[in-house]
Design brief:
The protein has two helices and four strands; from the N terminus they run ββββαα. With 101 residues, the protein is of the alpha+beta class. A hairpin with a 5-residue loop joins strand 3 and strand 4. It is elongated, with a radius of gyration of 28 Å. It starts with 9 loop residues before the first strand and ends in a 23-residue tail after the last helix.
């Protein structure tokens, strides 16, 4: 193995501020911030936006961004579609879509 070619692989703390959760693992990630861990040692800390403690897939808690459903939002934006030809070619008015014979 060539020397000085690979990044330094060392213990690093990853901290999820949203969930108040942190874990110690080994990584090549770097940081200027440090934290004193439970064992009394000081490690670099990397803040992350989401982790297994705050992600809805792992927690089972889905966060609702908007309470309005997709269909209701579509109907509010574009109307309910009443009086419009269903199907293909909107200009023909025959509802066939291809102007058929």
């Amino acid at each position: 193995m060539q020397q000085d070619k690979h990044p330094d692989y060392r213990p690093v703390v990853f901290r999820d501020r949203a969930a108040g959760y942190a874990f110690l693992t080994r990584s090549t990630a770097t940081s200027d911030q440090t934290i004193e861990w439970d064992d009394g040692e000081t490690y670099p800390v990397v803040d992350v936006e989401i982790s297994s403690e705050s992600h809805p897939f792992y927690t089972g808690k889905a966060r609702t961004v908007d309470s309005e459903g997709r269909v209701a939002r579509f109907e509010r934006r574009y109307g309910d579609g009443a009086g419009q030809a269903s199907g293909g070619n909107p200009g023909s008015g025959d509802g066939q879509g291809s102007g058929g014979s």
